[in-house]
Amino acid sequence: MSSLYRYADYLTAPVPENFPSPIKNRERINPLQEGAFFPEFLAEESRIINRGALLSDVKDIVSLHQLTAQPLVVVFYSWHWNDYADRLLAQLQESHAAIEATGARLLLVSSEDKKHFTTVNPGNFSFDIIHDAQHRIARKAGIYRESDPIWGRVSGVNADVPVPAVYLVTPSLEINYAFIDLYLQEKFSPESLIAAIDNQLAISA
């Protein structure tokens, strides 16, 4: 007689369906949402990965406020998002001309520095890209905390990086559009972003 299941009826304690997180009492990320104001930040010339129309003349340091004479689209990126990152970059490259046609500018904020970014993405990009050292800008946007890592909610992402986010920031630094994807399950829509830019410009006119 098989003894394979002979202890099956003698469990000493119930088995939980969901095991607790290894990080106790962690403080969750709190992404900025539409209607909030984007905190000021500084971008150093040494952190510029790619110069487009926005950063072409920047020397030394530039502030967010200096970059928002026109509506500014701020996009966070990490190649550690794998295929999701590739799709996002392709969408931005394809829609960049349409975004600029509205009068807005596009700034990509990369978790990786220039060496790593260009190694993974050797192609040419038409928009401005900067490195977010120590995730300083992502922290201000509320999309990154060490205590609430993305790898704790998304399988396949093993690096300590922010969650994807796209913001439309007005000259007053108000956020008029926000796309945040906590679980890498949503699909970013450039069309929705462009519609939000057009709506903002119509209100400002």
UniProtKB/TrEMBL annotation:
Alkyl hydroperoxide reductase subunit C/ Thiol specific antioxidant domain span: 60-177
Gene3D superfamilies tied to this protein: Glutaredoxin (3.40.30.10)
TM region positions: none
Domain of life: Bacteria
Recorded GO MF terms: antioxidant activity; oxidoreductase activity
InterPro entries: AhpC/TSA, Thioredoxin-like_sf
Protein name: Peroxiredoxin
Native source species: Chitinophaga polysaccharea
